[in-house]
Request: fold
Amino acid sequence: QVQLVESGGGLVQPGGSLNLSCTSSGFAFDDHSIAWFRQRPGRERTGLACIGGSGGNSFYANIARGRFTIARDNSKKTFYLQMNTLNPEDTAIYYCATRDRPGRTCSVTGPWHHWGQGTQVTVSA
Reply:
């Protein structure tokens, strides 16, 4: 079955950086869109960025554009979220996700069917 496992979260000081990873199994990774979301305390889960399968597009939500970069390594079946210039408002649980069907184009809206367990990111001095 589809499995997604996030790692790389932790405590970071304001202005710092983190690179989250999501390793995957159970589906044709190269062909599927993958995405990153986060859920801040007391808030709904929010889409940050996604990248299409088979060389498809990348998409960034406004809150992520300019500071966050999504990337994928098909040979490792792993994708990443590089986060720079972090601030306390970035404190959240970060999740990776994929869809049931292959696709080259993506947006963080719409259904995402499979989720990791999340990794905590805390930005604090």
